[in-house]
Specification:
With about 50 residues, the chain is an all-alpha fold. It has two helices and no strands. Helices cover about 75% and strands about 0% of the residues. The longest helix is centred in the middle third of the chain and has 34 residues. The radius of gyration is 22 Å and the shape is elongated.
Length: about 50
């Protein structure tokens, strides 16, 4: 029973680490959205009607 408890707690801590790493990655990527510029001539008129 102790082994099951330790394994389940280890799995939960590993999942928390994955969420923490993904959060840091997303926070680091957010400034790239503001830095990048929209490409000129990206198909304005006719292509915009398809959406």
């Amino acid at each position: 029973m102790l082994n099951f408890t330790v394994n389940s707690q280890a799995a939960m801590m590993g999942l928390n680490d994955i969420f923490l790493i993904s959060t840091v990655i997303f926070i680091l990527i957010i400034p790239l959205i503001w830095i990048t510029k929209v490409a000129k001539g990206s198909g304005g008129g006719a292509a915009a009607g398809a959406h």
